[in-house]
Structures are given as C-alpha cells and as structure tokens.
Amino acid sequence: MFIKGVLIMAEPKWLKDMNPDEYMKEDFKAEGKSEAGTTIEGIDKNDPDWLEKAAKKVHAAEGSDYVKLDAGLMTVDQLNWMLRSTIGELTFVDDNNQFLWYNRPTNPNYKMKAKRTPDQVGDTMGAVHPNVGDVIPEAKKVVHALRTKQDGHDDVYMPVPTGNLKELVLHYYKRVEDDKGNYAGIYEWVQDLYPLVKYFCETTGQKLVVDPDATTGATYRRNSDPDAKTGASTKAEAEEEKKEEKPDTTTSASQH
C-alpha cells in the first residue's frame, strides 16, 4: 500500500467496519514528531534528496561502521546486503507517518510488485500515495487500525487479486512496537505466496485442488483466468487430477 499506484485489495471485514471519522484523522502530512524522538527536523520530508541530507545532518553510520543490535553486531554494509537479499519486499513507515526505508533490490531489472524508488525515502505518507479514488482513505484505515490495535489486531493481511490462480500477491502489514509496547510504526511485507505454496506441495507430495464447499475464494477464482500462461487449471481439470491421483508411498502424499 505504501507505493505510488492504485491497488485493489481484499480487506478483512473488521477493517471494512472501521469508523472513517476516526481513521481519516491520520496525519499523512507527517507534521508531528515520532514518539521515539527520531524525527529529523529542518529538512523537507518530500525532498528527493532527503536521505542524503538527513544522513549527513545526524552523522548516520554507513559502510563499514558497526551497528550494535539487540542480538547481534553487524556493519551497515552487512545489514544492507542481508536485507536486500531477504525474501519479499519490505517497507518501514514510522509512527509519524513518514516513509523511512525499503529493501532496494540488488537486481536493477527486477520489477517490484510494490514499486518504490530511492527518491521516495523520507516522504510523507500523503506524498507516497496518489490522491485518487479511495487510496488515501484505505491507507489511513490500515495505519489507524494498527496504531490503535483495532479489535486487538496487530497485523493486516491484504491479498491483491491478479487474475491468475497461480499468483497471489500478499501485502502484509505488521504493527511495530518499542520495548514498552508503544506503537512505533508499520512494516509491510509484499510477496507472491504461490512459489512458497508450490514448494510446500512438491516437498510433501501434496496437490492444490479447488474445494467445491469452500465459502471463500469464489470471487478470486471467478475473476481469474484459468487459461493464463502461468495460471491454474480449471476446476474440472483439478477435480479430474484429483480422481487420477494414486497413493504414493515414495513421498508424503499420504498426508493429503
């Protein structure tokens, strides 16, 4: 969600039922200050060179400088290398609604599922999101829900329908807390879940089939192309495969 672009996501019912009079109060101009006192002042948050200017102002560690973590000691370079290699796309926004970091891909030709660019770092949430349709209200809803732990929730799952039954891009938002449990921001994780599910099935010898009795997923399947190049088989084909499946004593198929 923290991107330039319009995404249509399937939000959970508890999120849909939130009061807009409350979540629309979220300050997407980021005019306040982080409760942790980490907001860097005196630099325009939407300046495309914010990262370099802010780092210089606070004499930020970089390169071979060491950073002591709660369970480790690493250089800034090592942290960058590791995070850029982490599965999925990560983003961090602080409690003042300022976009502070993302794990930039090492491959310059990689097409991000949630596109972000270096010049966006430091931007306010209002600048990161396009002011079209319901994008801003939906983003404010997610932020406010995690800021207030709406109905006890500290995370939000938002799948993005892609029209392909063998691709399920998930935007996962997690409330970040300080050592005292206070709200400190949100990290977002974006990942196509299908490769992980495919690996699980191959490893355990199981198979994905359509559940005719399922009460969820009908809209997703109806809006998906069963003949897509990388798409899933039709329901009929899946059922036929299920009939043809034989007990497999060489794999974990008996778990199915």
Could you please describe the fold and organization of this structure?
With 256 residues, the chain is α+β, with helices and mostly antiparallel strands. The chain folds into 2 domains: 13-193, Beta-Lactamase; 207-247, no CATH class. It is 27% helix and 17% strand. It contains 9 helices and 7 strands. The chain has helices spanning 13-16, 20-23, 50-57, 76-84, 125-128, 135-148, 194-204, 218-222, 235-244, and strands spanning 66-69, 72-75, 89-94, 99-102, 155-160, 169-177, 183-192. The strands form 2 sheets. The protein has a 5-stranded antiparallel sheet with strand order 4-3-7-6-5. It has a two-stranded antiparallel ribbon with strand order 1-2. It is globular and about 60 Å long. The two termini are 36 Å apart. 20% of the residues are buried. Residues 1-7 and 229-256 have low confidence and may be disordered.
Short description:
Helix content is 27%, strand content 17%.
Give average pLDDT, whole number. Answer: 85
Number of domains: 2
* CATH secondary-structure class of the largest domain: Alpha Beta
Q: How many strands, what sense, and barrel or not for the largest sheet? A: 5 strands, antiparallel
Architecture per CATH nomenclature, i.e. the level-2 architecture of the largest domain = 2-Layer Sandwich
Principal-axes shape call = globular
Unreliable spans: 1-7, 229-256
CATH superfamily membership of the largest domain, which one? PAS domain
Question: Strand-and-helix sequence, N→C?
Answer: HHHEEHEEHHEEEHHH
User: Largest beta sheet: what is the strand line-up?
Assistant: 4-3-7-6-5
Biased composition (Basic and acidic residues): 236-248
Pfam family, one: PAS_10
Protein name: Oxidoreductase
Region (Disordered): 216-256
